[in-house]
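User: Can you write out an input/output pair for a complex, sequences first and structure second?

Assistant: Here is one pair. Inputs:
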Amino acid sequence: GGADMVRFKNRYLLAEIHWKDNLNDPNLTGKAIVKAIRRAASFLLGDFGGAILNHSMHVKYVNTGTNFCLVRVSRDHLRMAWTAMTLVTAIEDREMLFNVVHVGGTIRSCRKAALARDRKILALLGNAEEDGENE
Amino acid sequence: EGGGGGGMASSRKKKKGGVVTQKGAQTLHAQHHYYRVRVELAGHTLQEENVYQLKAILLHAVRNLLGEVGLVVPIDVLDHSGITGHSILRIPADHSTHIWAAFSLLAEFEGHPCTIRVVKSAAFLPGLALS
């Protein structure tokens, strides 16, 4: 029957990276990001939390152009991962901060949120351009 | 008498936020747990005055397992006896098992082998005196 059927529930954190030096690095890898988060988790949450996130947290997707990354973590450890991400201050010795903009159960919901955010930003830019053209 | 009498025939129990009410009798969950612990540091005897080193060892254990977030839990050293080597600690009940786990998993402190043994635990301080 369904006794051994365990449904693995995940949460996807969509986060923006704000770099202190405002430069864009096209070589940014998910590996570097996850390494930084795991180091913060090990410091904040000790051996216990660090080992949990080592196992259940992955970076699924990185967009170096827009500085967005998608982190997957099992649902039970969402708050731990979010705590660790909030307190990350550097990736590969470059100072930065995470800004988690959306938490969703599926990649699709995070994609929709990212698109909605882009649309909002484009709308703001659109208005600004119109004002400039009036001169 | 201790709450939650199991022998009552009419047991209409209602659980409201952790408090079991049974026709007027109430069981309140303790806020703190009290532990009698013995800290052993190889090659040293923890002096009665040196309660600071004792606290440092306890916090070192917690920081190892639970990290900076684990240090938020207040561990109060109520008493420390140099003669028996036992200390009495008070820990909030919600986190007491995490802290006990942290104590159990301590192996060394500043390069010296070190253990923390929880000798006795109780929900109320006089309970530590019971055999």
